[in-house]
Amino acid sequence: MSSTSLAAALAMIAGLAGAVQIAVQGRLSDRIGTVEALACASILGGLIALTVLLATRRSLDGLARGVAGPKWMLLGGVMSAVIILSITVAGPRIGIVATTAVLIAAQFALGALIDRFGWFGIEAIPLSASRVVGLALLAVGAALTLRR
Q1: pLDDT tier at 1, thresholds 50, 70, 90
Q2: 4-32: string of b/e by CB count within 10 Å (b at 16+)?
Q3: Distance between CA atoms of 117 and 140, rounded to whole angstroms?
Q4: DSSP 8-state code for residue 146
Q5: Residue ranges of the alpha helices (H) in the chain?
Q6: What's the whole-number mean pLDDT along residues 113-131?
């Protein structure tokens, strides 16, 4: 399997996992509370990540280097908490499809800006007319999913 195929397969798995996560986080929140559901999911995810790290690297050195590096690079962890909290609240209120659609449309829109301006040290990619049209269609699609 090529690295592109592997990356595409992992992205697809992440999409499938995200839909399940939206559904179960709302149910967990109903059972134990919103902030408790956030903490539960984050702690479990962290424990799994630490287990995989120790199983594959047999060391916490990489983790220590990550924490010691530029603090903006730790935004991924902060954003994970924001995502988990947001889907925990939104899923039961607007549904799985609408939550996913709005999340993806917003993610694409900010992703286009990150690409365009080369934020976070990535190579800048111009914002073409076709990208703008695609983003507009995504926004319309997301808005339509909010209608029941």
Answers
A1: confident
A2: eeeeeeeeeeeeeebeebbbebbebbeee
A3: 24
A4: T
A5: 3-32, 34-57, 61-68, 75-94, 96-117, 129-145
A6: 96
Tokens of 141: 């699609």
With contact defined as beta carbons under 8 Å apart, do 29 and 92 qualify?
yes
SS3 60: coil
Of the chain, the percentage scoring pLDDT greater than 90 comes to: 97
| CA angle (112, 107, 15) in 5-degree steps | 125
Residue 28's pLDDT band (boundaries 50, 70, 90)?
very high
CB atoms within 10 A of CB 101: 20
Give the rounded percent of residues in the chain with a pLDDT score beyond 70: 100
Bin 123: left if φ > 0, else alpha if -120 < ψ < 50, else beta. beta
> What is the chain's length?
148
Model pTM? Answer: 0.88
